[in-house]
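Retro notes
What went well: the complex prediction finally ran end to end.
Inputs used:
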Amino acid sequence: MSALTDLLAEWMPHQRWFGGKGREWASVAEDGFFLDEASPVLSVHRVRIGYADGAEETYLVPLSWRSEADEEVAHAYVGSVGDNHAYDAMRDRDATVPWLTHLVAASTVGPMHFHPAGVAYIPEGLPGDVISGEQSNTSLIYGETAILKLFRRLEPGLNPDVEVHEALRGTDNPHIAPLLGHVEIDGDPGTEPATVAFLQSFVPNASDGWRLATSSVRDLYAEADLHADEVGGDFAGEAERLGEATAAVHRDLAAVLPTAEVGADWYAELATQLTARLDAAVGIVPELAEHADGLRALYADVAGLTEPTTAQRVHGDLHLGQVLRTTTGWIVLDFEGEPARSLAARRELDTPLRDVAGMLRSFDYAARHLLVEQPGETQLAYRAQEWAERNRAAFCEGYAGASGTDPATSPLLQALEADKAVYECVYEARNRPHWLMIPLTSLARLAAS
Ligand SMILES: Nc1ncnc2c1ncn2[C@@H]1O[C@H](COP(=O)(O)OP(=O)(O)O)[C@@H](O)[C@H]1O
Ligand SMILES: O=P(O)(O)O[C@H]1O[C@H](CO)[C@@H](O[C@H]2O[C@H](CO)[C@@H](O)[C@H](O)[C@H]2O)[C@H](O)[C@H]1O
């Protein structure tokens, strides 16, 4: 192994975006090229990790290089190779400029191709600041004008976030932030290029739905003897508008991307998938086992459905953290789907009820997350239930009003909510074990009904 490969193998497992934490590595290989040779030099590396269980993952790591150690970027220091000092290029402001320069120039650099959308201004020359809530991706904000999301784990094929935003471009949908460009990198011969980055208009002066909803819940808890509709921070009007916005996005997705009329076979396949996800989740979260029979019965009902319906492209991981409230309305972000699913699965046609179920789960989350610290508070638990029901109903009303179909009456909805809660149990067990009780409590209710 080269000194650089050693350095990356040491550094990567400590990064928030690295998804292979705790897995045993069997091999690691790195290949890189220069994206910018000015100062600081910017290089991009593909790091391919083979795990002991035979699986492989490839990560993208941009590094900036200096011949003298620089105190100003000490926070981004990765390590040294010979006389050169390597820094995390996403946290080194000077090294963030070339991404936009190359997009404006529609460059090809080695295996990397820059595709400007050609519709709006790209703030060339500005440095980008990394956003604090980094998760599986790393995003840079350029002067409150544009946001660049770097996809860390490379997979062959167009990322659904780019695909969906590109398709929605012609619709004038007011609930999405326009795509400004994207970046791809060639893969192994015979494979499609992988999407590396996605540049989107930054939505200024906005607050995300999770922050707004949870501050409404906090208001309610402060007045525990009042009902949700009597408290100043009531969220139901916003929830209703969010339902309308979701329906408008679904309508446009169906208009510009493929759809399919589906029936009995599709429901049977769906039930198989729901059951398979439950079985896998029980192996990871043993607490799920006591609800498994009830959930299997719920999924068996899905297998018996025959009513024809339309499958289409959906958001795939819609929740309150993925929507922004601007001064004029709601914007829906991040059409990437659930990060744990394969790219192919995330691009499949699905029922729009998947997103409705995701958002209904999110109202439950917002209502209950404060109870994690106060499990014995029955009065607050009662208020939380009221808040969740009120906002879930308002969301469905808004959706029904805008689409002409009331999601609350669908026989599929409960099973899809349960499936999302099963996914959330795995997500929480891996990332925030102290929040596991939120989806588990909901599953107890869903499995018993
Ligand atoms: N176009 C945008 N305008 C303003 N803020 C944005 C925009 N896109 C993302 N954000 C902010 O960045 C956060 C993370 O973005 P997101 O696309 O959800 O990334 P991730 O896939 O890492 O969850 C969002 O919750 C939002 O606050
Ligand atoms: O935003 P991501 O695409 O990374 O989504 C993942 O992380 C989410 C948490 O940040 C997780 O969402 C769950 O927690 C939210 C509150 O933090 C809640 O609003 C959601 O309803 C709940 O599912 C999401 O499931 C996961 O894919």
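What we learned: The radius of gyration is 23 Å.
What to try next: split runs per interface for comparison.
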